Amino acid sequence: MRDPLTVLTDAFTAFLFGKVETTRLPVRTSTGQAQAVYLPTAAPGLGDSGVIIGREVYSGKGYIYDPFQLYGQQLPAPHWLVLGESGNGKSALEKTYVLRQLRFKDRQVVVLDAQGEDGVGEWNLIAEELGITPIRLDPTAALDMGIRLNPLDPAITTTGQLALLRTIIEVAMGHGLDERSGFALKVAHAYVNETIVERQPVLTDIVEQLRHPEPESAEAMNVAIDDVRAWGLDVALVIDRLVDGDLRGMFDGPTTVGIDLDAPLIVFDLSHIDRNSIAMPILMAIVGVWLEHTWIRPDRKKRIFLVEEAWHIINSPFVAQLFQRLLKFGRRLGLSFVAVVHHLSDVVDGAAAKEAAAILKMASTRTIYAQKADEARATGRVIGLPRWAVEIIPTLTPGIAVWDVNGNVQVVKHLITETERPLVFTDRAMTESSAELPDDAPSDEALRAAELEAEERAAYMEQHAG
């Protein structure tokens, strides 16, 4: 019961000023009707400058992503990790992303293509469309004067050559070189570089020097020449595999003349190499270091290095260490490293867990396609996804992925144009559900217009920077 004084005061106030408070009856409603009270909201996008990926599922807005435009503002590093089960659209995303990046004038892309069918890699159609001949690394073809990459190419620094030789040997042996073996390799490499000047030194020269070391190398360390020879025996046997084993022909001669490192797209076709053999990480190491010293230059170009089946890199401690150094070029020379992996558990629980964690930390962009529930939870824990994103990953349909761009998490539907479709989907991919072209796919004219606008905006921002 209200206080009499309060009642009298309210009555007097109402007499002087009129009724100041309206008494409303309670309203009964349903959740369907009350949803208008809480209007839908969506997190802000990544801006409107860059490459069109598709459409945000919840807001319907276009989703635009470009690590070079976002670097320094929203991204601490331009590197990108793509995860997901086969058949959910990873390959389609990679290919359309590269095709759309190449519309910009200052872009250049290298692809390590580890998958293929009918004797060619998955990127063969795109290479043909752009007038590019893939660099096909094939032991059989190499014996008939096919493509060769020389680990002792003079374009690679002496320090880089020695680091590459050590990595090849450590990958093949499955453990690090001890001090004695490392010393034998170092003196053999130094002697070969000092004495062979009329041609490119090759791996055969290293093997020969390990088998027959110079007396001076033993005298310098006050050891017997037979000891130096014994220390280098295992190293010589490993290198001999590249010269006369299952990898012969690809690395035991001068680098093939005519490889166009200025082409907008460079495709290394590794589809003829057994993906489960020790050859694959060795190839990754050689190609990675060779590119580091011959391709990456301070010429203001934005470069993308895309690696299929990247677990061969991240799962090997020795190769991962080389690629960690390569990734650091992203900040200084404009390199974006894109790693495509099926399962994160393939690498985070492997022999290179420490190196894998370092590479994952450098990848500020993570795109996750559908995974099984347990795999999604493990992925969420490792890369720090919010709970709601982890819960929806197992429910994602082909072509839709969770994007985490340095903490900006969105669900994105990837869209493909009619022109891109025959280049993106191989015969195998055409049998997947992801091959269906969405009804709301943008036209090629609309895509080009939007990207021209983005390119002009980027040029204006660069011209007026500072």
Folded structure, characterized:
By secondary structure, this protein is an alpha/beta fold. It folds into two domains: 51-144 and 263-463, P-loop containing nucleotide triphosphate hydrolases (Rossmann fold), CATH 3.40.50.300; 158-244. The protein has helices spanning 4-17, 31-34, 67-70, 90-101, 124-129, 139-143, 158-173, 179-195, 203-211, 215-220, 225-231, 233-244, 279-294, 311-314, 317-327, 329-333, 345-348, 353-362, 373-383, 387-392, 421-424, 444-463, and strands spanning 51-56, 62-65, 80-83, 107-113, 116-117, 120-121, 135-136, 265-269, 302-307, 335-341, 365-368, 400-405, 408-414. The strands form two sheets. An eleven-stranded mixed beta sheet has the order 2-1-13-12-11-3-10-9-4-8-7. Strands 5-6 form a two-stranded antiparallel sheet. Mean pLDDT is 81; it is low at 428-439.
